[in-house]
């Protein structure tokens, strides 16, 4: 069974601070996706990383996929209250399936 | 391009009853997956439908069943509801064979079993 562990589980920071969220597994994934979820809503896809060592930037968000494709990180620079939400990482399957393995998520609160 | 839509948004059922949840996939997508998200947890994969057939299933009992229709919309049926079935049920659509790896989620159906 593939498992994804996210840390920290909860994070409360002041506006303007930087933060990093981690997603780790003992399994190799063909791809890894990061989602952001608001309360009572479905997850919204932020980014997909596919290649080991890949780094993607989305404005103030930087995503990295580990060289061995077992782990990933999300770094947010100068956090804003609008970044508040549940950040989920999800490991992608092999060909022929869209079964995603999700971590439990990191609940981020950015205080103005 | 329409996104993934689910209905109803909220539902309250009594233990032992049956429930049907519905999902319209994103335009152009041919694959639908269903997930259960309990409070404080990440989504857990229930099953996936492609070409109207189930082609992948997570660790859920047979009382969780589904259908996919020719227009790629889908239903999730749960029989003999239990209190632990209370959760947010998410539908995700994808394009199998399109070369991508992304799944796009609907807003979910919040099911409460009392």
Tell me the greatest interface. Answer: A-B, 26 and 29 residues
Shape assignment of chain A = globular
Number of strands of chain B: 11
What's the pLDDT, averaged over the residues of chain B? 92
Shape of chain B: globular
Structural class of chain A: mainly beta
- Helix and strand sequence of chain A: EEEEEEEEEEE
Gap from first CA to last CA of chain A: 40 Å
Q: Please state roughly what percent of the residues of chain B sit in beta strands, choosing from under 5%, 5-15%, 15-25%, 25-35%, 35-45% or over 45%.
A: over 45%
Topology as H/E string of chain B?
EEEEEEEEEEE
% residues in beta strands of chain A: over 45%
Give the number of DSSP strands of chain A: 11
Mean pLDDT of chain A: 91
Radius of gyration of chain B equals 13 Å
> How large, in whole angstroms, is the Cα Rg of chain A?
13 Å
- Helix coverage percent of residues of chain A? under 10%
Poorly predicted ranges of chain A? none
Largest sheet of chain B: 7 strands, mixed
The largest sheet of chain A is: 6 strands, mixed
Short description:
Chain A has 112 residues and is an all-beta fold. Chain A has strands at residues 5-7, 10-14, 19-24, 32-37, 44-49, 55-58, 61-65, 71-76, 85-91, 101-102, 106-111. The mean pLDDT of chain A is 91.
Task: Write out key terms for the chains shown.
heterodimer, A: 112 residues, mainly beta, six-stranded mixed beta sheet, five-stranded antiparallel beta sheet, 11 strands, globular, B: 114 residues, four-stranded antiparallel beta sheet, 50% strand
